[in-house]
């Protein structure tokens, strides 16, 4: 499937909602693999932040074991934030986004497909890299497992919330700075409970309540964020 907006319109038109979502998802995946630099930058940033942190603060094992989960969560959060500007930007520049807005299928479902593709390309690789980096910061095995679980639940929330900010700042100058100011405060609850879950495991406390709250965040984001992103896209497109 090409990056041509006319081709995208032809593929999505005349098919069901599931077919349109699949078409948008597969197109975003293929386009991302053609632009490997945008695909690799968040992963390299994630590795660099975690690698440089012990050099800049303290390489002591006790400190890294205590702060490791927070380091990895903050690095993952910033890596997802780094990639959000490209979520709708390329489609906006080549006219594809305008065609998606005009599709007969609900826009919020197409936005959900794009956000899922963004998570598959950014959030999931971060989760896969986490065990290696967790060993590097001397986290125990049970903490690494729970950390991966919290990132698996939390990174989709980061992508879903981030899609709202990316849609609101679409077409604006200095959009990256404004996007950070809008989104980072909304990320704080996910960060707190993500790191709190790992801290509870290290102290031997039960983590069921933490995981339940993170699951609630994910359900809430899945329910509300696509609608908010779709509305923000329509506003940004009408003002551009």
From TrEMBL:
InterPro entries for the chain: Cyt_c_biogenesis_CcmB (IPR003544), Cyt_c_CcmB_bac (IPR026031)
Role summary: Required for the export of heme to the periplasm for the biogenesis of c-type cytochromes.
Localisation: Cell inner membrane
Any GO BP: cytochrome c biosynthetic process
GO molecular function: heme transmembrane transporter activity
Highest taxon listed in the record's lineage: Bacteria
Keywords carried by this UniProt record: Cell inner membrane, Cell membrane, Cytochrome c-type biogenesis, Membrane, Transmembrane, Transmembrane helix, Transport
Keyword NAD part of the UniProt annotation: no
Family under the similarity heading: Belongs to the CcmB/CycW/HelB family.
Protein name: Heme exporter protein B
Protein's membrane topology: Multi-pass membrane protein
GO CC list: plasma membrane
Pfam families named among the record's database cross-references: CcmB (PF03379)
Residue stretches spanning the membrane: 39-57, 69-88, 108-132, 144-170, 177-201, 207-228
Keyword Membrane: yes
């Amino acid at each position: 499937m090409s990056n041509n907006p006319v081709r995208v319109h032809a593929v999505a038109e005349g098919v069901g909602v599931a077919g349109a979502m699949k078409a948008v998802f597969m197109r975003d995946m293929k386009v991302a693999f053609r632009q490997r630099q945008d695909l690799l930058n968040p992963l390299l940033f994630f590795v660099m932040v975690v690698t440089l942190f012990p050099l800049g603060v303290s390489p002591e094992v006790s400190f890294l074991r205590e702060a490791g989960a927070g380091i990895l969560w903050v690095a993952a959060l910033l890596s997802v934030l780094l990639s959000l500007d490209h979520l709708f930007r390329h489609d906006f520049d080549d006219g594809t986004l305008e065609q998606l807005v005009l599709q007969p299928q609900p826009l919020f479902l197409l936005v959900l497909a794009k956000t899922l593709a963004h998570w598959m390309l950014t959030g999931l690789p971060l989760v896969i890299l986490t065990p290696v980096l967790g060993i590097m910061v001397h986290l125990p095995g049970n903490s690494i497992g729970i950390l991966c679980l919290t990132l698996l639940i939390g990174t989709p929330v980061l992508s879903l919330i981030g899609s709202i900010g990316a849609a609101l700042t679409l077409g604006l100058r200095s959009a990256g700075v404004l996007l950070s100011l809008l989104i980072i405060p909304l990320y704080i609850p996910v960060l707190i409970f993500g790191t709190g879950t790992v801290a509870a495991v290290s102290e031997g406390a039960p983590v069921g309540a933490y995981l339940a709250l993170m699951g609630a965040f994910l359900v809430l984001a899945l329910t509300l964020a696509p609608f908010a992103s779709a509305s923000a896209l329509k506003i940004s497109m009408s003002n551009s």
